């Protein structure tokens, strides 16, 4: 376990107002609605930071613009910004994002999760690990790590 | 393999369902599918089980056995001994299990312990006397089979700087290849005095090798060439035929890059397999399967490979393993994150 916090005093930002998704009235209600940026942001904004009682949105680890989505190609990329350059929690945050999307999106989706370029000391190493599905699968079979991830994801299912 | 005229089709023969999580790996029983012995395929999965599938008289496949309650975590890979009597399986639980096929039953006859954590791949040498395993602890272990299903570790090979994704023995020689997360391919051979194993060659970025994780390797039938596939979205063909061995009789010459195939997959290529007839199959995270053959219509001396067939949406999710049937070289099996296994047949459709 970590003794002392990695980032003891993070800047906390105001959460964005929840936009109610407008339901168009003039279209076929059975038509499949494409998944958009906001829908994906809604899945991840409330993920709790592994070491603070704040959400990833409140810490600006993710914003709506962190999400790039192409529904036609079933592709999502989330680019997150760790609060400090040496954040050892970056891998856990990335893992939370990946797991949350894995559980929320249709299985046809391909997901990439990466650190915003230039915002972390070991950016390439963390990105490589987060996008190696064998390592992710092994990590999620580790009960301690899985518990930590589930704890961070709990608010998103509220 | 020559294809004259006509067009080729990879036709789905059957979809095998039963695993409740992603299927990681497949292995054809090399002794089955001939002389009246029905073809047999092993599959392993994130559901912690191994399934044995058998082809019935009508050509339809059924699950013959489920090997469970031995591995406690994901079963990552499986490999049959050359005699087809033993099946080795490796797991994220840090063990390798060896199963014996007796009568209609599969019995776990040995458990190999030693790796610190996830064991990712296993391979038998041609004679069936040696087993190699590799894993996240960056090591490759060589085990020697003793009478009474005892396995003794004869060497722990260190050299990779990150986890080792796959090991594969050469089809003729006692030469081992390992590939991994450190983007490298390593060739291992026994010392001249037969005492220990060492790395005889490393193929990395400096030798025009891969620039990201190397997931798999497969040899051509005579072992003169090998193909590797990677997270860098390329496949690379390596050749050892042009430089005869200078070290000893039990070692191939040094490997050099023959060609790189890029632009055929959009996401990480997890599996590659070279058929007895010379067709290379690849399976990737883009849900697709691609087939390649050596290009003969090239007038220059440099050998090259060309795309033979593209099968988009081969599965609903990532393709983790593609394996040609060694006895029926136009039959391919594939395994996927979608939990299914598919049996395919490569057909020439007349125009």
UniProtKB/TrEMBL annotation, chain A:
Q: Which SUPFAM superfamilies match?
A: Fe-S cluster assembly (FSCA) domain-like
Q: Which GO terms describe its biological process?
A: chromosome segregation; protein maturation
Q: Which Pfam families match?
A: FeS_assembly_P (PF01883)
Span of domain MIP18 family-like = 39-112
Keyword terms of this UniProt record: Chromosome partition
Q: Which InterPro entries match?
A: FSCA_dom_sf (IPR034904), MIP18 (IPR039796), MIP18-like (IPR002744)
Protein family (similarity comment): Belongs to the MIP18 family.
What this protein is called in its record is: Protein AE7
Which gene codes for it? LOC103714555
Automatic annotation (TrEMBL), chain B:
* A GO BP annotation: iron-sulfur cluster assembly
WD repeats sit at: 16-54, 68-100, 112-153, 157-188, 207-248, 312-346
Q: Which GO terms describe its cellular component?
A: cytosolic [4Fe-4S] assembly targeting complex
What are the record keywords, sorted?
A: Repeat, WD repeat
CDD domains, alphabetized: WD40
Show the InterPro entries listed in the entry. CIAO1/Cia1, WD40/YVTN_repeat-like_dom_sf, WD40_PAC1, WD40_repeat_CS, WD40_repeat_dom_sf, WD40_rpt
Q: What does this protein do?
A: Essential component of the cytosolic iron-sulfur (Fe/S) protein assembly machinery. Required for the maturation of extramitochondrial Fe/S proteins.
Regarding protein family, the annotation reads: Belongs to the WD repeat CIA1 family.
- Entry protein name: Probable cytosolic iron-sulfur protein assembly protein CIAO1 homolog
Its gene name is: LOC103718010
């Amino acid at each position: 376990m970590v003794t002392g916090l990695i980032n003891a005093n993070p800047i906390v930002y105001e959460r964005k107002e929840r936009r109610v998704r407008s339901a168009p009235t003039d279209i076929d209600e059975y038509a499949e609605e494409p998944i958009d940026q906001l829908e994906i942001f809604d899945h991840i904004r409330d993920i709790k930071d592994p070491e603070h009682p704040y959400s990833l949105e409140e810490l600006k680890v993710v914003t709506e613009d962190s999400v790039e989505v192409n529904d036609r190609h079933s592709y999502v990329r989330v680019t997150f910004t760790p609060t400090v350059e040496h954040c050892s929690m970056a891998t856990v945050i990335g893992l939370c994002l990946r797991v949350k999307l894995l559980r929320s999106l249709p299985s046809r989706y391909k997901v990439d999760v990466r650190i915003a370029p230039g915002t972390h000391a070991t950016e390439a190493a963390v990105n490589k690990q987060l996008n190696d599905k064998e390592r992710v699968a092994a990590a999620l079979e580790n009960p301690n790590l899985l518990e930590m991830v589930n704890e961070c994801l709990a608010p998103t299912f509220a | 393999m020559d294809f004259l005229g006509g067009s080729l089709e990879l036709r789905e023969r059957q979809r095998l369902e039963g695993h409740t999580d992603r299927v990681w790996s497949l292995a054809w029983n090399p002794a089955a599918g001939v002389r009246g012995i029905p073809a047999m395929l092993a599959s392993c999965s994130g559901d912690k089980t191994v399934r044995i599938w058998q082809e019935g008289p009508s050509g339809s496949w059924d699950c013959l056995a489920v090997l469970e309650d031995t591995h406690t975590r994901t079963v990552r890979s499986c490999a049959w001994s050359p005699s087809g009597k033993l099946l080795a399986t490796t797991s994220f639980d840090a063990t390798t299990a060896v199963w014996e096929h007796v009568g209609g039953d599969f019995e776990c006859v040995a458990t190999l312990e030693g790796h610190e954590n996830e064991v990712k791949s296993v391979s038998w040498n041609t004679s069936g006397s040696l087993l190699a395993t590799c894993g996240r602890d960056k090591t490759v272990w060589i085990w020697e089979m003793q009478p009474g299903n005892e396995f003794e570790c004869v060497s722990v090979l260190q050299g990779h700087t990150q986890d080792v994704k796959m090991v594969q023995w050469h089809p003729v020689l006692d030469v081992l290849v390992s590939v991994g997360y450190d983007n490298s391919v390593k060739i291992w051979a026994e010392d001249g005095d037969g005492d220990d194993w060492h790395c005889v060659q490393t193929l990395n970025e400096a030798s025009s090798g891969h620039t990201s994780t190397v997931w798999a390797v497969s040899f051509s039938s005579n072992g003169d060439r090998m193909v590797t596939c990677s997270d860098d979205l390329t496949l690379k063909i390596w050749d050892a035929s042009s430089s005869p061995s200078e070290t000893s009789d039990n070692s191939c010459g040094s490997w050099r890059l023959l060609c790189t195939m890029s632009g055929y997959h959009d996401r990480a290529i997890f599996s590659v397999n070279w058929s007895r007839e010379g067709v290379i199959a690849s399976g990737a995270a883009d849900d697709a399967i691609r087939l390649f053959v050596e290009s003969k219509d090239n007038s220059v001396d440099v050998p090259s490979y060309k795309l033979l067939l593209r099968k988009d949406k081969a599965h609903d999710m990532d393709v983790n393993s593609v394996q040609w049937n060694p006895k029926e070289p136009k039959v391919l099996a594939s395994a996927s994150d979608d939990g299914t296994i598919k049996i395919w047949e490569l057909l020439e459709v007349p125009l």
